[in-house]
């Protein structure tokens, strides 16, 4: 077996020069700026403390880049994966608690094991049998569920956790008179800033711009009301090393959800990799991408 098969980064490392390094640095810096608001948002959607979204965005891209196939893919948390993680664990533990975090690590590790196994078994061709419409439909459905789950924060309405989609909207309409205008203003300003920046100034990170504008308005309104809750300071240091819960009960409980997350993550990664590869004429090795994604999730957990 060739050494490059075990360490695929050896095949592209020799192609790095001053010109490509400069371009990669700019691309990496752009990605880092964009992931700041995204990481916080994805962690919140998944029911984890905000800093875990940033930790995930720091570890997984390195491993996936070294052992994956794509020269352009930046791996990390996504909207669809975040909502599936929340749905899988929220029935077993309270979001944000140490138990929830431990189960999230276990779920991530198991998903990585599945992905690594798929890659080693050379099952990369499975992605060819999944329609793009399936992924698009799932992502659209996830977006609707995410928007619904965040409406209580935008409107300032107290809705019990664990409510279904229909019951959540019934609660919203029945308590519409209790909406908080301060919170609505912040939410609308953040959303429209992001939309307008993306439309008229596409070179500027629109989500970061929206977060900055919304944060400034929140700080101004904070002087006039106590109803605005801030995320708070994100710890400057890395979290202490913690192990996933490898008990038989936890593995049995999370194995089906981990399988679904593994497939969804692989479909997203390979689909994006192939879309970008068509512009760079790179040939994507789906099996190697499976291995890279699996190792990144296992190490990241």
The level of helicity is: 55-70%
Secondary-structure element string? HHHHHHHHHHHH
Number of strands: 0
Mean pLDDT: 82
The gyration radius over C-alpha positions equals 21 Å
Strand content: under 5%
Low-confidence stretches are none
Structural class: mainly alpha
Largest sheet: none
How far apart are the first and last residues' alpha carbons, in Å? 29 Å
Q: How many DSSP helices?
A: 12
Bulk shape: globular
Question: Could you explain how this protein is built, in words?
Answer:
This protein has 301 residues and is mainly alpha-helical. The chain has a domain at 22-156 and 248-300. Helix content is 69%, strand content 0%. The chain is built from twelve helices and no strands. It has helices at 3-6, 9-13, 18-46, 50-67, 79-89, 98-120, 132-155, 165-174, 181-200, 206-222, 248-280, 286-300. Helix 3 crosses helix 10 and helix 4 packs antiparallel against helix 12 (286-300). The radius of gyration is 21 Å and the shape is globular. It starts with a helix and ends with a helix. The mean pLDDT is 82.
Briefly say what this structure is.
This protein has 301 residues and is mostly helical.
